[in-house]
């Protein structure tokens, strides 16, 4: 008698748990907990790799603008100081343009005289075949050697020709470069004084 | 005994094959149109998206099928979403760490796999009612069917819109006149609607012919 009673009690408890009002809540919490632990684990594995990947990408990008670069320092004012073996040869910083399809990430390199060394489109989500032409050399080469006052589209009095069919993308790049130049040149000048 | 052994495998193939034509997620079920329209402007993006969806669909179908007996119906949708979102996050971290170019190319659409209604649809309609074995077949079939549909749409859009065919940075061929004067319209968002609409009409027509 006692044994039977015990069995019935156990079964009853499990049923109670599965059909209890709190069960959906407990189950969902459990799923979320498992998911959180799993994601923490995946994050801990990939974190170092992602950081290393970004680091090599930055070095590669900086070398495209300053081929003679040996070393670089990231400043707390959010620009890179670029060094050839010993000397400071220029500065680099990123700008974000508001393009037709989203953000356009641009890396801008300037020399000690604050003339543009070169610019590089790091990433964009513009229309393939049209807006993506901003990454091609015929467009970015136009920025080489420009001073701040020339960074504007030709129709607005600058020295950069817009790409046919991609005026919004072209303007986004030019505007972002100009605005970032104004900000960063000011910062760099203040610092050297 | 033999019949019982053959049967599951036969059913496995049936569940697998149906995703390509009979219940093709894009052209027949008309699900997941948002990514279909958005990422098909180039073949690279379409294939990357397809691979991502296959991975997430496979993972979510297996897990949801495993826990189907314990899942209280009242919280099943939140449970599905948590499972799917976990797989998407894993996928996005792995892509960022190991294939950064693809991660860059897919951008926001990688994260938006979470709300792809094909995946939630399969979880609700299939994985929560069937065994793990058939859920795997369903995930692979539907996932590959989706990838195939993306490939067809992106193939047409890239050919018409740029006159060239480029797969993972490799220029396969370019059409003489079209590559000089590409019909850029097809690469822009309205082109996606036009191509998809015509393909849907084609599949409907083929379906009607088959029924007669």
Task: Explain the overall architecture.
The complex is a heterodimer of chains A (193) and B (212). Chain A folds into 2 domains: 55 residues; 125 residues. The longest helix of chain A is centred in the first third of the chain and has 43 residues. The termini of chain A are far apart. Chain A is elongated. Chain A contains 4 helices and 5 strands; from the N terminus they run H-H-E-E-E-E-E-H-H. Chain A has 193 residues and is of the alpha+beta class. In chain A, a hairpin with a 4-residue loop joins strand 3 and strand 4. In chain B, helix 4 packs across helix 7. Chain B has a two-stranded antiparallel ribbon. Helices cover 71% and strands 4% of the residues of chain B. The relative contact order of chain B is 0.17. In chain B, a hairpin with a 2-residue loop joins strand 1 and strand 2. Chain B has 10 helices and 2 strands. Chains A and B meet through helix 2 of A and helix 4 and helix 8 of B.
Question: How large a portion of the residues of chain B is in β-strands, by DSSP E?
Answer: under 5%
Please give the order of strands in the largest beta sheet of chain A: 1-2-3-4-5
Number of DSSP strand runs of chain A: 5
The DSSP helix count of chain B reads 10
Number of domains of chain A: 2
Strand composition percent of chain A? 15-25%
Mean pLDDT of chain B: 85
Compute the CA-based radius of gyration of chain B.
19 Å
Which ranges of chain A are low-confidence, i.e. pLDDT below 50, for 5 or more consecutive residues? none
Element pattern of chain A in H and E: HHEEEEEHH
**Which structural class do you get from the secondary structure elements of chain B?**
mainly alpha
What is the subunit arrangement here? heterodimer
- Structural shape of chain A: elongated
